[in-house]
Amino acid sequence: MEDKQVILTDDMFELLDDSEKNSEFIAIESKTFLKDTWDRFKKNKLALFGLVFLVIMILGAILIPMLSKYGYETQDMANRNALPSLEHPFGTDKLGRDNMVRVMYGARISLAIGFASAGINLLIGIVYGGISGYLGGKVDMVMMRIIDIIYSVPSILYTLLILMVFGNNIPAMIIAISITSWIQMARQVRTQVMSLKEMEFAMAAKVLGAGHMRILMKHLVINALGPIIVCLTMMVPNAIFTESFLSMVGIGLDPLIPSWGQLANNCRQLLFTHPIQIIWPIAAICLTVLSLNFIGDGLGEALEAKR
Prior knowledge:
The chain is mainly alpha-helical. It has helices at 33-41, 45-67, 99-135, 137-152, 155-166, 170-196, 200-207, 212-223, 225-248, 260-267, 276-302.
């Protein structure tokens, strides 16, 4: 079969005008990872509300006790159990102390405990879970059995023991909350590392001579940051709620430390006579925990690998 030769001539082509040359050009905005994550995060209205509320709460905890003319321990016995007013927006307690200042000062304590506990859980979880998932085999089996032994004992027993030994102070509370909370982070990191270490980029780094610690921290943990951050945001509200619950039932922080849990515990005696006083610390706990959960859900969608 003879090949047919196609001859192209100038008559078969038509030059485009300059105005038509870019008519089909589609400009795509170049986005960094953080900007792309933020664009997806802010589409979640609940997550955005949670972030705004948390920022307002942090700013209030810093500024209101500093700018208010009332201290969190300033007593006014002539103005006890006052209702909300312009002078005292949240009213006063049974000793005439300003409730708004005390709630905002308590936010410092509760938020500090929440974020500090989450930071400790992050550090221990990444190191423990990363080593367990990367080495695998017998090392992984032994490390996981240790976790099972720790997890088999109710966390309230660890908490009571630590508070009895070290006292009802903030560092002891942080240690008590973190003593078992890191297990969830360690399991999350282990799962991610075990799935990532068999992928091509990890194998390539190993072939090129990278050390084990560099592969683990620079390649595997970095690529697992999405689920790790989501797990971290869920640990903060858990720590805040745990501290508030323990303080409210009387086995948490010292009564002189005005955390949200202690404020709620102090208002229990006035539940039937002045019930409005217990609303403020309970509302602060619930709204903050809810906001952090919204932020965690929003980050989970924004950092989803399939997206």
